[in-house]
Amino acid sequence: MSYYDVDAILTESQKLPCTFQLDVPGLGYLDGSPGETITAGTKIELPLWLGTMLAVANSNNPSQSALVTLDFPAPLQTRVINALEADPKSVDIRAQAPHYYALGSKILELFEDDQIVEVLLKTFRQRAAEIADHAHNPRGALGEGQEFLRGLDEMERQLFKAAHEGPKAVRQWLIDMKRIS
């Protein structure tokens, strides 16, 4: 994560379900009860950066169990993955997570799940083709494509912008080159 990258900061702040494996005195403020002990088995949604830090806190000592175990966040659970497998273009990815693909990438650094990798790759490919179509066809973006475009995550929005502005920049470059020669 880059210190100044706002997108990376927002991705790392996405909530992640964590289950405490040990009793932790004084950490109750994470659960809304300041000063109390978090008991083993307590499930709390923590920001990705904090959950990851707590999960690896005891990793240098193999005799101790991990402080917390991590679960997949809601945007990457079975229900959403199945919907993406069925029809990637029908899922409002932005409603799942504004930085959906970045979140997926971060989670897949922690968990090895080839099925999710394949689904995310297939989803991005199919949606990228649709995004390019909308970027080059303004009528589609203004008409029936508005709902699809509202559901783009930040990476897809950047792709749309690049696909929309790219041909204009090439035309301008050609005009400038004709003036020079």
From TrEMBL:
Keywords: DNA replication, Nucleus
UniProt subcellular location: Nucleus
GINS subunit domain: residues covered: 76-174
GO CC terms of this entry: chromatin; CMG complex; GINS complex; nuclear replication fork
Tagged with keyword Disulfide bond: no
InterPro entries listed in its UniProt record: GINS_A, GINS_bundle-like_dom_sf, GINS_Psf3, GINS_Psf3_sf, PSF3_N
Domain DNA replication complex GINS protein PSF3 N-terminal: 4-56
Record has Nucleus as a keyword: yes
An example Gene Ontology biological process: mitotic DNA replication initiation
Family that this chain belongs to: Belongs to the GINS3/PSF3 family.
Subunit structure, as described in the record: Component of the GINS complex.
Stated role: The GINS complex plays an essential role in the initiation of DNA replication.
PANTHER family assigned to the protein according to its UniProt record, in alphabetical order: DNA REPLICATION COMPLEX GINS PROTEIN PSF3 (PTHR22768)
Identification of the protein by name: DNA replication complex GINS protein PSF3
Taxonomic source organism: Cyphellophora europaea (strain CBS 101466) (Phialophora europaea)
